[in-house]
Amino acid sequence: MAEMSILDLFLKASFLVKGIISILICFSIFSWAIIFKKTSILRTATKTADTFKNRFWSGIELSHLYQQSDDRRDKLSGSEQIFYSGFKEFVRLHRAHHHVCEAAVKGAARAMRISMNRELEALETHIPFLGTIGSISPYIGLFGTVWGIMHSFIALGAAKQATLQMVTPGIAEALIATEIGLFSAIPAVMAYNRFNQNINKIEQNYDNFVEEFIAILHRKVVTSETDKNSIIINKKSVQQ
Predict the structure, then answer these.
(1) pLDDT (mean) for 95-107
(2) Which value, to the nearest 10 degrees, does the dihedral of the CA atoms of residues 232, 234, 237, 239 take?
(3) pLDDT of 115
(4) How many angstroms separate the Cα of 192 from the Cα of each of 95, 113, 127, 180?
(5) Which of 4, 93, 108, 166 could form a disulfide with 86 if both were Cys (CB 3.0 to 4.6 A apart)?
C-alpha cells in the first residue's frame, strides 16, 4: 500500500468525518485566537494594576489622583476604574449627606464592588468557551472515529475477500478525528486553567485594593469627625 498523508486520508474520509474534522479545526483556530488575545489582555491588566498601585501609594493627594483619572475617564480600566468609581460616589454622597459620613463610605464600597465585578466580567469574556472546547473536542473526535471505524467494518463485512489492506485506510482516516480532537482540546484546557489562575490573582489584587481604599476613606471620615468635635468643644470653651 502506498504511503498516505493526513491530507489524503482526510480527502478520502466520509462526509460526516470530514465535517467533524472541519468543526474541530475551527475550534482549534478559535481557541488559539482567544489564547493570544487573552494573554495580551491579562498581561496588560496586571501591568496596569501594578502601575496604578504605585501611583496610589506614592503619597499623592486622593483629590489630585481623582482629577487625573477624571481627565481620562473614558480610558480607565482595572484598579484605576475601581478607584474612580469609589471616590466619585464618596464625594457625591459626602456632599449630599455631610452629616452621615459612614453612609458615604458604604456607598463608595458598593460602587467599587460593582466596578470590580464589571472589570472581572470583561476579563473573563470568552474564557468559558475555551473550557467548552477543551471538554467537548475529544468526544466529538471520538464520535468521528467510531463512525469511521464502523463504516470500515461494514465495508469489510460486505467484501467477498477481506484483507487488512481494505480496512487499514478506513481506520487510519477515522483515527485522525480523535487526533485533531486532542490537538484542539489540550491547548484549550491548559489555557483555560492558566487564565483562571491569572484572573483569580487579579481579582485578589482588586479586592485588596478595595479594602485598603475603604480603610483610608474610613480614617478620613473619623479624622474629619474628630476635628469637627474638637472645634465645637473649643467654641464652647471660649463661650464659657
Answers:
(1) 74
(2) -70
(3) 94
(4) 45, 25, 6, 18
(5) 108
